[in-house]
Design a protein that fits this description.
Strand content: 15-25%
Oligomer: single chain
Strand order of the largest sheet: 6-5-7-8
Largest sheet: 4 strands, antiparallel
Number of domains: 4
Radius of gyration: 28 Å
Number of helices: 14
């Protein structure tokens, strides 16, 4: 169940990210063509007001198709209509006419020539694959040449649409942290154990509810702060917990604590926890401070990644689900905090100036606004290739870390 909750939380964060793009695009006059819960192909779909809504086969996150993300180029017709032209050479005049108009940057003329190409494709004897590719090409051209195409919009509209995805994750993170502050933050606890999380290091060590912790690594502990600090600063090495059980001194088996945000934990809850609750205004202020602190830390982490020293901190959805499912077993407060941190991480990582990330599109939109004209698709594709390579590199580094963590390495 905890794994399901973790996957659901990650899917929710990706979904609200895409929803930010979707609703902002509609607000500024760019009508998205598709909005999916999950990723295509579709299990179920319906069309309303020209927008296709669907439930994707891949049940993780969401998908939004915004029309005309790139300026149409003559080479686009070679890609989409190559097979159709091979099977039906009579398409050549219509295709060459639009290619010529696109090369001349006469996009309105190319749009006016579209009906001729659509009619030619409809009447051409084509195989199923060639027709499917040609129809996809017609759809892409129509979107790219339409008045609501992304690349044709004013710079502020493009920035608003692309920035809305990370912005939604950022707002969600702050609100979630504010809810945690309003629910209450634990500020004090006793050394007595209230309960032990199943399958945790504490459970493996033999810790039981009712035990009074009197030492960690044979160093006396006089309050819960001593216990917590000793475990968190263990560096992941085996920890020996000493307890009083039914009036007898018991030294438990040494166990390695799990790594958590801020240190390490064995997996138990102390009794006598006191909570401090905050009003909404104070909670939002504290949540915003926490968000700024994490943002600065993320900036340091990115610089360490570039130098190679932060490689061990990279993770993938595999590690995210594993960690958040473990936290989901402890308490909903901690789970909300981890979910907020993941949402903030999604926002910040998406703002890196790399295509195809949102930050890359923002950077290109600003450059295009300063130039006064769109950047060619070839440049987009070359820069995207570099960005995809870097993202894949980070993914494989993170995956190796996650596999190592699963194996205990």
């Amino acid at each position: 169940m905890s794994v399901f909750i973790a996957i659901l939380g990650l899917a929710l964060l990706i979904l609200i990210h895409e929803a930010g793009h979707f609703y902002t695009a509609r607000l500024v006059g760019m009508r998205p063509r598709r909005f999916y819960i999950g990723f295509p192909p579709a299990l179920l779909k319906t069309t309303r007001n020209g927008i296709e809504y669907g439930l994707g086969v891949i049940p993780l996150g969401g998908y939004v198709k915004i029309p005309g993300m790139h300026r149409p180029a003559p080479s686009d017709l070679d890609v989409h209509f190559g097979a159709a032209l091979y099977e039906s050479p009579r398409l050549l005049p219509s295709i060459e006419r639009i290619k010529r108009l696109l090369a001349q940057n006469d996009f309105d003329g190319a749009r006016a020539a579209m009906p001729e190409l659509e009619h030619a494709v409809r009447d051409a004897p084509l195989s199923a694959n060639a027709r499917r590719s040609a129809n996809r090409g017609l759809e892409e051209l129509a979107d790219g040449l339409g008045g609501d195409a992304y690349w044709r919009q004013r710079t502020w509209k493009r920035l608003a649409v692309i920035g809305a995805g990370p912005g939604t994750n950022l707002v969600f993170a702050i609100l979630l942290l504010a809810i945690v502050y309003m629910i209450g933050i634990p500020t004090d606890a006793s050394r007595r154990v209230a309960d032990v999380i199943p399958k945790s290091p504490a459970a493996a060590a033999g810790l039981k509810a009712g035990d009074m912790i009197v030492g960690v690594n044979r160093v006396p502990s006089y309050d819960f702060t001593d216990v917590r600090n000793a475990i968190r600063s263990s560096g992941g090495k085996p920890v020996v917990v000493s307890v009083l059980r039914d009036g007898r001194y018991v030294e438990l088996r040494p166990e390695r604590p799990d790594k958590v945000e801020g240190g390490y934990a064995l997996g138990f809850h102390p009794s006598g926890i006191k909570y401090t609750r905050y009003n909404p205004i104070a909670a939002l202020g504290l949540a915003s401070k926490d968000t700024w602190f994490v943002t600065k830390a993320m900036g340091t982490w990115v610089s360490h990644i570039a130098s190679g020293s932060g490689r061990k901190e990279v993770s993938t959805p595999v590690g995210i689900v594993r960690e958040s499912s473990r936290v989901a077993q402890t308490s909903y407060r901690e789970y909300f905090q981890v979910l907020a941190l993941i949402s903030l991480s999604l926002a910040l990582l998406n703002m890196l100036p790399l295509l195809p990330l949102d930050g890359g599109h923002i950077a290109f939109s600003i450059i295009e606004g300063m130039r006064g004209r769109a950047i060619g698709r070839v440049v987009y594709e070359r820069v995207s290739a570099v960005g995809i390579a870097l993202v894949l590199l980070l993914f494989f580094v993170g995956l190796s870390n996650d596999i190592g963590n699963i194996r205990g390495g």
